[in-house]
Amino acid sequence: MFLLKKIYCRSFQTVLKIAIPFLPYRNPKTLKSVRDIQDLLERKKCSDILILTDAGIKKLGLTKRLESALKDAASDRDPDDSRNRK
């Protein structure tokens, strides 16, 4: 059984290695500033944002500029939005 599993895994890896150049990949767009987020959100029509980080990053305050830019973008879109809490 171990030999069959090994053959299967190696075959799978080989097929993926051959297929990688033909798979469609998107080129990421780099934003120059957190202020560019507002334009991106408007173009993509996003209403909910999830910031996923760990406690250390949050404790160091590395997300404060991003959070304030997102709050500003939300208040610019709809100031009467009940979910918009500062």
Key terms:
single chain, 86 residues, mainly alpha, 4 helices, 55% helix
Provide a descriptive summary of the structure in words:
It is built from four helices and no strands. By secondary structure, it is mostly helical. The protein is elongated and about 60 Å long. The N and C termini lie far apart (about 60 Å). Helix content is about 55%, strand content about 0%. The relative contact order is 0.09. The chain has helices spanning about 1-20, 35-45, 55-60, 65-75. The model has no long low-confidence stretch (mean pLDDT about 85).
**Rg over alpha carbons:** 22 Å
* SS-derived structural category: mainly alpha
Mean model confidence by pLDDT = 85
Global morphology: elongated
| Count of runs of 4 or more consecutive helical residues | 4
Q: How much helicity do the residues have? A: 40-55%
Helices and strands in order, then pairings?
Layout: H1 2-19, H2 36-44, H3 55-60, H4 64-77
Q: Quick gist of this model?
A:
With 86 residues, the chain is mostly helical. The protein contains four helices and no strands.
